[in-house]
Write a structure and sequence with these properties.
- This protein is an alpha/beta fold.
- It is built from twelve helices and 13 strands.
- It folds into two domains: 134 residues, Aspartate Aminotransferase, domain 1 (Alpha-Beta Complex), CATH 3.90.1150; 248 residues, Type I PLP-dependent aspartate aminotransferase-like (Major domain) (Aspartate Aminotransferase, domain 2, 3-Layer(aba) Sandwich), CATH 3.40.640.
- The strands form three sheets. It has a seven-stranded mixed β-sheet with strand order 2-8-7-6-5-3-4, sandwiched between helices. A four-stranded antiparallel β-sheet has the order 9-10-13-12, covered by helices on one side.
- A hairpin with a 3-residue loop joins strand 12 and strand 13.
- Helix 2 packs antiparallel against helix 9, helix 5 crosses helix 6 and helix 10 packs parallel to helix 12.
- It is globular and about 70 Å long.
- The structure holds pyridoxal-5'-phosphate.
- Pyridoxal-5'-phosphate binds next to helix 5 and helix 6.
């Protein structure tokens, strides 16, 4: 097949400086897992850690573990572990709640900092919960509060003096289009607006430069590239300069300056803890804490380098092997504008993906007609790209996806 052979891919794997990290993950045999951007796989150590938390910290030590196992500081300890992955300082990041809830908290907090302004600017086709949460927040606030959406490519130009807050997902969840964080943050600040970056498809996948960009706020997911497990807690970043003054509306006791003072009046903590709400789920938090160790000593520049190489290779293979099957690339060809996944379109994307999954190549389907493949450099290699496209080519060529069982939809796609 043209220029790229399986042998060449194998040679790239042998020379890969990140190859030893694959054994930090407990992946089932015989599959190529290309859905780490939806649910990261199980890192080694997480199962033991959770078992330990259950049997020792909870069963044996009971309530004492809030202190003895330092459960109370898990939100900030996990936040500090995430910080270097997103270009933040340790005390600017905290683990909390879900991304959806965190979006509400930071957007409300940002609006509060822009008195007289109530326009939230985002893009149509953003991840649904980002838009839904902003619609709910605007409806709750009433008056002239509203969400305005403008195509990704036109965002910078659409920021005006009326814009209060700009909410953008740096790497788009379908197209993988990656925004220039520095340029867009600057464009927002030039007009007096604040910016919130959703890093759900960035954190752990691409180097993120929040402070270098002078960003105000960020949120992101714990269960995608950070591998924290299904429904893992999310995170929040607040720039140091806002930490003393930022006011978020969900003023629960974990955000209080003295949660165990049990006083009647709310007084926010003077740091990032003010973004907390209630008692964290310690089992899930412990899983995420342990999962983050998979990044210990990992050079994110090498991760980015390999991510680009894998997505480039996948695209080249698609372009040479899938001609004439109605497959189109839905991801930027310019690697500088691309995150760490690749999406393709096909009229029967759902059935094609089901057939692929049955054959051990696990990507996902996104409505209406996208096949999405996550390239996670810590556990995927070049041969995996070759085999994935090879299997896809076979399914399209034999039209195996026509088989009836591949058209049955479950609740989760
Ligand atoms: C995955 C994702 C979310 C998920 O939000 P949850 O509250 O964890 O369900 C939010 N925003 C973006 C951009 C995402 O990709």
């Amino acid at each position: 097949m043209n220029d790229i052979s399986l042998k060449w891919c194998t040679e790239q794997d042998i020379a890969d400086p990140l190859k030893q990290y694959r054994n930090r993950f407990d992946l089932p045999e015989g599959i190529i897992y290309m859905d780490g951007n939806s649910l990261g796989p199980l890192p080694i150590g997480v199962a033991d850690r959770v078992a330990h938390v259950v049997s020792e910290e909870w069963r044996s030590n009971l309530v004492k573990s809030w202190n003895s196992a330092d459960w109370i500081n898990l939100p900030t300890r996990v936040g500090a572990k995430i910080a270097p992955l997103i270009g933040a300082k340790p005390h600017e990041v905290v683990m909390a709640d879900s991304t959806s809830v965190n979006l509400f908290k930071v957007a409300a907090a940002a609006l509060k900092m822009r008195p007289g302004h109530c326009e939230i600017l985002s893009e149509p086709g953003n991840f649904p919960t980002d838009l839904y949460m902003m619609q709910g927040l605007a409806a709750f606030l009433g008056n002239d509060c509203h969400l305005k959406t403008v195509d990704r490519a036109d965002i910078a130009a659409a920021i005006t003096q009326d814009t209060a807050v700009v909410l953008l997902t740096q790497v788009h969840y379908v197209s993988a289009d990656m925004m220039d964080m520095k340029a867009i943050t600057r464009a927002a600040h030039d007009k007096g607006a604040l910016i919130i970056w959703d890093l759900s498809h960035s954190a752990g996948a691409v180097p993120v430069v929040l402070n270098e960009s002078n960003a105000d706020f960020a949120v992101g997911c714990g269960y995608k590239y950070l591998n924290g497990g299904p429904g893992a807690p999310a995170f929040i970043f607040v720039a140091e300069r806002h930490l003393k003054s930022v006011q978020q509306p969900l003023t629960g006791w974990f955000g209080h300056s003295d949660p165990f003072g049990f006083v009647d009046d709310y007084l926010p903590s003077d740091g990032i803890k003010r973004m907390l709400v209630g008692t964290p789920g310690i089992l899930a938090a412990s899983a995420l804490d342990s999962a983050l160790d998979a990044f210990n000593g990992v050079d994110m520049a090498l991760v980015r380098h390999k991510s680009v190489a894998l997505t480039d290779l996948f695209i080249r293979l698609v372009e040479s092997r899938l001609v004439g099957y109605g497959v189109e690339l839905a991801t930027p060809k310019d690697s500088a504008r691309r995150g760490s996944h690749v999406s393709l379109t096909h009229e029967n994307a759902f059935a094609v993906m089901q057939a692929l999954i049955e054959r051990g190549v696990i990507g996902d389907f996104r409505a209406p007609n996208f096949l999405r493949f996550g390239m996670t450099p810590l556990y995927l290699g070049f041969e995996d790209m070759y085999r994935a496209v090879d299997t896809l080519a076979d399914i399209l060529n034999t039209e195996q996806w026509h088989e009836e069982r591949f058209s049955k939809k479950s609740a989760v796609t």
